[in-house]
Amino acid sequence: MPVSWLISILLTLAVIGYFAGQARAMRSAGGDPRNLHSRPGYYGAHVALAGLLPALGLLVVWLILQPLVLDHARAATGNLIGTIAILGLMLLGCGLAYHRTRRDFRARNVIEAGVMALLIGAASIAILITIGIVLSLVFNTVEFFHLYPAGDFFFGTTWSPSFGGGSQLAVLPLLWGTFYISIIALGVAVPIGLFAAIYLSEYAGVRVRSVAKPMLEVLAGIPTIVYGLFALLTVGPLLARVFGDGGLGWMQAGMSVMTAGLVMGVMLIPFVSSLSDDILNAVPQALRDGSYGLGATRSETIRQVVLPAALPGIAGAILLAASRAIGETMIVVLGAGAAARLSLNPFDAMTTVTAKIVSQLTGDADFASPEALVAFALGMTLFVITLALNIVALVIVRKYREQYE
User: Which of 68, 83, 208, 283 is 20 to 30 A away from residue 139, measured at CA?
Assistant: First the structure.
């Protein structure tokens, strides 16, 4: 039986169990819900969830284990057995819960305990996934450093992979390109986004705000590949005409750090503006009124009261934008090129860590070679750097937040 049909049957049985449990609870109370320990809906939910949750759990386990324990010849028989077991568990759970349903049964307590267990399970799954991601990076990174010297990786200055041997896999040129592009992007996004947020929060009227804020947030919904094409077809050629051979002579081609940085900065504007606007609006109005009562102007109130009070949240918004910039790939590939070099010229083509991770894992790569395993070492390096940025930002946020508690 197809999985979609099986899930539909399970949901149908859960709905039937809900109404059956509700009806049994009302009968046990003589038709008066005031005689029940809990509301009738709790009894119905208890019957429905008692069958649905174990059945869905068994379904997930079966979908994971079936390809591992059954070959193609026994797949049909295995599907039939699995379907019968899942439906049987569903009926058994609903039946036991239905039998326990009576007016003094503490259905609300059971449901709330079940919801708490689900929440703990969801949090545990998120933590376990994070641990799994980190471990997968760690194991492959350790394997890479067994094949390639760690000193050459961290302190070398040349990135020149060669699947035929003799590769030079230094991370410094990639980190330089990553930070260079990110700094330019933040230099564009942070001032524009923050000034836009201040205007929307402190100066704009209701009508202007209702139009301007959604238009700014539209930028966040544009796919990054579209930004990449915009960098490749519009911004790059425009910069090349101004700073290239036909202009100042600083730029050799349309792909450069400046091209990717400018377009990435435009992409990050809604991250900074929208979050900063919400943070500025969350500053208590009493702080503004106190400043006005002491004779401060609106601009003085913004500079000396509102912005300091909102600084922890603004720092978080900037950190989110920085993390987004560090992890961007498509804009870099189409706007900055693929050259790994250490250069101060913002009009040179460069590349980033994420772009090289993609290139090293594209194609028929042998995962036993350092040229492929280096992608995991690059990912681990980027993970550690991002984690360090988060820790620094958390320290800054806590330091300034204490002044306003």
Answer: 68
Domain spans of the chain? 3-130, 159-404
Can you list the residues of the chain whose pLDDT is less than 50? 402, 405
CA dihedral over 394, 400, 404, 405, signed as positive or negative = positive
Task: Label the pairing between strands 159-160 and 168-169.
Answer: antiparallel
Contact partners, residue 140, CB within 8 Å, separation at least 6: 373, 376, 377
Q: Quick one: tokens of 282? A: 């969350």
Amino acid present at 282 = A
Of 26, 83, 93, give the one whose Cα is nearest residue 54: 93
Place of tokens 């797949």: 75
**pLDDT for 281:** 85
| Token duo for residue 176 | 């330089």
CA R_g for the chain: 29
What's the gap between Cα 170 and its chain centre? Answer: 28
| pLDDT, tens digit (0-9, with 9 covering 90-100), for 286-333 | 888 888 888 888 888 888 888 888 887 888 788 888 888 888 888 888
pTM: 0.71
Give the burial class of 7: count Cβ atoms within 10 A of its Cβ; 0-12 exposed, 13-18 middle, 19 or more buried. Answer: middle
Token pair of 323 as six digits: 């993390």
Q: How many CB atoms lie within 10 A of CB 257?
A: 27
Cα separation of 66 and 49, whole Å?
25
Q: How far is it, in rounded angstroms, from Cα 222 to Cα 266?
A: 11
**CA-to-CA dists, residue 154 to 67, 71, 137, 378, 383, angstroms:** 41, 46, 17, 10, 15
- pLDDT value, residue 402: 47
- Copy the structure tokens of residue 141: 């990174």
Residue whose C-alpha is closest to residue 341's, from 153, 183, 159: 159
CATH number of the 159-404 domain: 1.10.3720.10
Quote the pLDDT of residue 191: 92
Report which of 346, 323, 324 is spatially closest to residue 335, judged by C-alpha positions.
Answer: 346
Tens of pLDDT, residue by residue over 263-279, are 999 888 888 888 888 88
